[in-house]
Each structure stands twice: as structure tokens, then as C-alpha cells.
From TrEMBL:
Coiled-coil blocks: 35-64
Protein name: Membrane protein involved in colicin uptake
Keyword entries, A-Z: Coiled coil
A Pfam family that the UniProt record links to this protein: DUF3886
Region of interest called Disordered, as start-end residue ranges on this chain: 1-22
Top-rank lineage group of the source organism: Bacteria
Length: 86
């Protein structure tokens, strides 16, 4: 008995066979409005993160400046090797 050769013909799904997505169902002006709103929200989030970072940086610099004037902190931080400065 001879073996039968199976043909591997696959049907390519056409554009009409794909299920409809939400983007396809909505009007283009609504999709554009939603994209603009998403971009605005991302910009607000970025600005908020930048403000928090700047505030933390300012607080760190203020603490550093306060510690520069604190004699006890400077005394603890300094090395007591007087031979270096002889």
C-alpha cells in the first residue's frame, strides 16, 4: 500500500474573519480624544514625579547644609589623624 500525501494548505484568515476590536467599533474622533487624554495623564504623572524628586533633592540639600554647621556632626565625621596635618 502506498502512503497518501497530505497537502498542508492553510487558509489565511482574511481581514473580515478577525473579531472586531474596540478600536474598530469606536469612531476615530473618540479614539483620538482618548489617546490625547492618556497622553495628558502621562504628562501629569511625569510632572508629579519630577516635583517629588525635586522636593526630595531640596530636602537633602537643606539637611546637608544644616549638618555642615553642626559641630558635633563635623567632629564625628572628621578623621582624628593629626599626623596628616602636621
Amino acid at each position: 500500500m502506498a502512503k497518501k500525501k497530505w497537502s498542508s494548505v492553510t487558509a489565511e484568515p482574511s481581514v473580515q474573519d478577525k473579531p472586531a476590536t474596540l478600536k474598530d467599533l469606536l469612531r476615530p474622533d473618540i479614539v483620538a480624544g482618548l489617546k490625547a487624554q492618556a497622553d495628558a495623564m502621562k504628562a501629569e504623572e511625569q510632572a508629579r514625579k519630577e516635583a517629588v524628586r525635586a522636593e526630595a533633592e531640596a530636602a537633602r540639600k537643606a539637611e546637608e547644609k544644616r549638618l555642615e554647621n553642626d559641630f558635633g556632626h563635623l567632629l564625628e565625621k572628621s578623621k582624628l589623624d593629626w599626623r596628616k596635618h602636621k
